[in-house]
Amino acid sequence: MGNDKKKTNSQSLAQWMKVAVVGSFQEALKKLGTLMTLIGGLILSFFYFRPFGKNQEISFQEFKIKVLEPGLVDHIVVSNKELAKIYVKNNESEEAQEGLGIDHHDFVRVTYSSETDWVSVFLILSTLLLAFGVLFHNKERIDGMLNFGKAHVTIVDKYAQNKVYFKDVAGCAQAKQEFMEFVRFLKNPKKFQELGAKLPKVFVGIGAARVRNLFKEARKCAPSIVFIDEIDAIGRARSSEGYSGSNDERERTLNQLLVEMDGFGTTAGVVVLAGTNRPDILDKALLRHGRFDRQITADKPDIKGRDQIFQIYLNKIKLSHEPLYFSKRLASLTQGFTGAEIANVCNEAALIAARTEEAQVTMDHFEAAIDRIIGGLEKKNRVISKQERRTVAYHEAGHAVVGWFLEHTEPLLKVTIVPRGTAALGFAQYVSNENLLMTKEQLFDRTCMTLGGRAAEQVLIGTVSTGAQNDLEKVTKMTYAQVSIYGFSEKVGLLSFPQREDSSETSDK
């Protein structure tokens, strides 16, 4: 047992060192590319801006008459059979030769030699340095161009520093338990297989070639988890009218995905997960046994789940009290919020506290953050007439008073007439009891409370305004649902008509 533990630790250390070495090498390669680009650019700039002397070109006939025949040339050196260097006699040597009786019209001595043109060498080297530097510096972009048609997958390294553990996830206990089961299978698949169990694939655009490449990479990294987000983009039910246009590529991709999953047993050590908000439109072949045959629903957290999520995020904030002091109340104020929205509330509260130069985050900051997320940014400078402000006040008070006297309405938490967002001139916030079922009496009381604002305008002001538009939309949806879905109408009877795909009647139950 001790040897196995040491072996595991050694493997973990080796993997960590491998990741560190690869990361350091890639970083060094990028720095080398930058350095090579800089050096090559400097050398080219030096030769480009160097003030070379201007040479005057003359013809051979002119050279013969003006230079060669007068005897001004001492000797000529021809380099590489291309360039001739002419050395002119100085006066002292010419006088000495005349004193010795040497005829200055004798043939000039010509010497042939081979020389290295260092200017050309430096220019070539600097150009190569610049080219290789640009290649190394833009290696990722070039790799992306060369890998066109391959799957752009993100391999999550288990030794990365920014890890998220199961203990950091709250608010969806059942979904969390399901995913933990997959991890246990990857760690110890024999335990499941000995009992005869097969781990089901689950689902919580790549082209056909990229699908093949994706599963090829997954097999190399086994044990691993393949996660395909928004699978409805390629997994939508296939049309019976044949291929046409963009559907051709999408259906080829879907077919390739089905083929890969058919030849993809659990013994490969790979689990396939996919995410979607539209499971109802997926192709039935994807949901067949052996493919995606288990669905894990991650619903919005209830009040208990929101309490747990708040406790996780509150531990990262400097608070005026213990996290438990805030979490329960905040959970009751954020009915219908997702985990991401709860994280946004905590972050917004910290920003508000920093903006007001507070040392700690208080409940007032959290309530201000919730108001901003629900109603939008507070418009303190918006110009509103006294009549409009009076109308909004009566309207919101009408909601509150009617809700106070009715039995089945939710408790009122807050009413405000401070303008927020782009259109809202005020809103009321209630503490939801989060019932899963609603009676006919509850729906009737909610309808009355929703119309309380318009009724207050009619009674107290003597006229109605356009401020009740949103209230009328809600009442229309609730009333339509009572008649056409829930069978609450005595005249229409016990009927329930199918809903349209884009309808949202159930959202206001």
TrEMBL record:
SUPFAM superfamilies: FtsH protease domain-like, P-loop containing nucleoside triphosphate hydrolases. Residues 328-368 form the AAA ATPase AAA+ lid domain. The chain crosses the membrane at residues 32-49, 118-136. GO terms for molecular function: ATP binding; ATP hydrolysis activity; ATP-dependent peptidase activity; metal ion binding; metalloendopeptidase activity. Keywords: ATP-binding, Hydrolase, Membrane, Metal-binding, Metalloprotease, Nucleotide-binding, Protease, Transmembrane, Transmembrane helix, Zinc. Residues 382-504 form the Peptidase M41 domain. Residues 198-297 form the ATPase AAA-type core domain. The keyword Transmembrane helix applies. It holds the Pfam family Peptidase_M41. One of its GO terms (biological process) is proteolysis. Its cofactor is Zn(2+). In the N-terminal section; belongs to the AAA ATPase family. In the C-terminal section; belongs to the peptidase M41 family. This is Putative ATPase, AAA-type, core, peptidase, FtsH.
